[in-house]
Amino acid sequence: MVETTITAIKADIGSLAGHVVVPDFILEIARKSLKEAVEKKIINDFYVTHAGDDLELIMTHSKGEDNEDVHKLAWDTFMKGTEKARELKIYAAGQDILSDTFSGNVKGMGPGSAEMTIEERKSEPIGIFCADKTEPGCFNLPLFRMYADPFNTAGLIIDPNLHDGFRFVVQDIKKEVPCFIEMKCPEEMYDLLALIGSTGTYTIRKVYRADGLITAAVSTDKLHKIAGKYVGKDDPVAIVRAHSGLPAMGEVLEAFSLPHLVSGWMRGSHAGPLMPVGLKDSRCTRFDGPPRVIGLGFQVSNGRLIGPIDMFEDVAFDISRQRAMEIADYLRRHGPFMPHRLHDMDMEYTTLPGVLTKCEARFVEEEPSSEGKARDTSESAE
Ligand code: F6R
Ligand code: MG
Ligand code: MG
């Protein structure tokens, strides 16, 4: 049995013409860096892509999760890209790099990471989902639908291998120190939904089949939580295994057919529909969005990645895209009003309190008169 670790690490280290798209030269730098790492046997294989303005490094190796060499490779690759991006004055160059020095693991340093170690099955189809202009909780709804909703996943009813259900590991991402709870579905479905419906606080980190088989992993790194103030966006990545006792790839993809509302659009401060797109549309434009997700299908084969196939680049998702664009258009009409604009507590940008504090000082207890000032009762009493 071959044991392979799949590591997806992403960072926004600069993008073209604003927060729109990763420039080609950054992708090339990343490919060169990871190719050299294959030659040095740090990793077995890789695929470099982007979700809007986020550079995505998808790697396979046999070193296990949280491996220092692999994380350092990702870090060094981001540093190389950042250096060139700074030289060319690319917008927001080095945005997600929160430190000058690497300290063993990319966690807590800006980039986001999702990892899983698998014993390769006879055939190992996986999907890598990368989202832009949103937050890690954007995967809560699709993952719930994949593993717990029989209206999405026919296998939950039809396939006896899925009947025992799935275990969800949920992280409280508002806590400074990572903090997890495990819940079993279908038994604890209502409690699970009570948590993961609050997408800005409780994020699905991993999903296991009832017997312990790992099946999904999500990057849960919350950038503004790490830095204490807004520095960038925590656009996430998810790894999902499919078939042979797990949801079929079609059931995995079906979970993205609803362009559900997610947080993180424009300045990390607005809600918008998550639109599934092919790689050619992986660039955020209208109001910096709408939020998008790409889906790449691979076969993991003896530690190598075969593929990918660009799974949302298909007419079957045109209807989801159309719906997403209509929802986006409708929401935009709300301008600065909630719920399109997020509640102050949920905004990634931490600048609004400053604006509100300025107004706060001008609040008076007496209602202003028609002259525009609060009536001065002491004067009128004389
Ligand atoms: C950031 C992002 C964008 C920006 C927005 C404002 O990664 O995705 O939505 O928040 O374009 O950008 P700044 O603050 O750089 O002017
Ligand atoms: Mg950006
Ligand atoms: Mg981004």
Annotation keywords:
nine-stranded mixed sheet, binds magnesium ion, alpha+beta, binds fructose -6-phosphate, 382 residues
Give a written overview of the molecule.
With 382 residues, the chain is of the alpha+beta class. The protein has one domain. It is built from eleven helices and 15 strands. The strands form three sheets. Strands 5, 6, 7, 8, 9, 10, 13, 14 and 15 form a nine-stranded mixed beta sheet that branches. Helix 1 runs antiparallel to helix 2. The N and C termini lie far apart (94 Å). The model has no long low-confidence stretch (mean pLDDT 93). The site of one magnesium ion has 7 residues, from loops.
- The helix/strand series, from N terminus to C terminus, equals EHEEHEEHHEEHEEHEHEHEEEEHHH
Query: Would you report the number of β strands?
Result: 15
Instruction: State the domain count.
Output: 1
- Intertermini distance: 94 Å
Count of helix runs: 11
Summarize the amount of helix as a percent range: 25-40%
Task: Report the sheet with the most strands, covering strand number, pairing sense and barrel closure.
Answer: 9 strands, mixed
How confident overall, as mean pLDDT? Answer: 93
Q: Report the structural category.
A: alpha+beta
Bound molecules: fructose -6-phosphate, magnesium ion
pLDDT under 50 segments (min length 5)? none
Overall shape: globular
Strand content: 25-35%
Radius of gyration: 23 Å
